[in-house]
Design brief:
The protein is an alpha/beta fold. The chain contains 18 helices and 14 strands. The chain has two domains: about 280 residues, UDP-N-acetylmuramoyl-L-alanine:D-glutamate ligase; about 130 residues, Protein-Tyrosine Phosphatase, Chain A, CATH 3.90.190.
Length: about 425
Amino acid sequence: MFSEEDYSRVIEEIFRRHPSVQVSGFNGRTYKAGIESMSAFDHILGQPWKAYPCIHIAGTNGKGSVSSLLACNLALTRAQAIGLYTSPHLLDFRERIKIITESGYEMISKEEVLQFLNRYENDLAQLSFFEITTGMAFWWFKRRKVDAAVIETGLGGRLDSTNIILPQLSTVTSIGLDHCAMLGSTRAEIASEKAGIFKKDVPALVWGHDAECDPVFESIAAQVGAPLHFATEKKLPEQFLSPDFLAGMDLKGEYQANNLLTVLAALDILGEEASERALKHCARISGLRGRWEVLENEPFIICDIGHNPAALEYNFRQLKALGRPMRIVYGIMKDKALEDIAPLLPAQAEYYLCAPRGSRSLGVPELFSRLKACRPELKLHCFEAPEGLSGVKLALEEARRNAGPEDVIYIGGSNFVVAEALE
């Protein structure tokens, strides 16, 4: 018999024994570069991903949106059940493992999570959290007889746990400098890791041309024998490329233009029709959150999980274009390139600095001092919370208290900042 008490106990134990990158950062216990352990576990599971066709998505930014848009479109145009595996999660790790249908999304149930963990308890000892959830997703999708699945990489591509699959399409959404310690210090090096998902005779799609990365994609595609496509070279339906269509999507943010282009190109390669309803209402259908998500209108409160320079450059440009007084609730992880982000911060905003819970967070005093060194003109306010309380909550409450009806409050810098705001 299922009980919430049993579920909470088992999940707490799993998080303790197999800490995730999301909580504990990159270390020997949380991140394992290589697919050997995942491949062995996959064989124990019976290689469940072979029961349904897969689409594989990698990229620095946009891969969660592209994955969700593709899954929604396939679910609606085919009237089928489509598995969707993404990361990270915001409030509940089960957000990573969903099935999308015409009527909306369903996360893996707590009962099924327990069934999986109990059944394979003796096989988990040497696995990372991400390897466990990847196996759980593949197992659940087969159990629920999905018609297809969209699989997002966790980090990179070549050595990512998801790279055991042989997909129908391999897609790279964008290349930017993030996770450089693991993936490389140049965009070309990172592109090489992302292109590690290319497979022989499987179409490979890259969102657009890039002088630094194109030779890498072309070389790797030729080496493995993957037909290479660029989204910007495709002749795509004009009605979905207009600014009006983009403005009508519930996945907001200027950056969604590139994601939409990538999705339309992927559908073209797969021979699928584009669904206006799926593309316009993806956030509602799939439950995807934290992508230029509007939480309130007066004051205008937006949250977005963008956390690296490439993503934040888009966000801050769009934020300034609103032409409203700005208050920014901001926190960051220790491993992010703050000195590269600092020049992008809008000078006219008021900043409410915070540190979300967890050991990965950059402390408020250090965040303040480093920002002051880079940008002494910024108006910085610090909010530290006692142990167990949320500094994000304190910062957001103060921002709301000082905001007028015309102000915009932007919450971001980290998935964790957004998650605590949503709480």
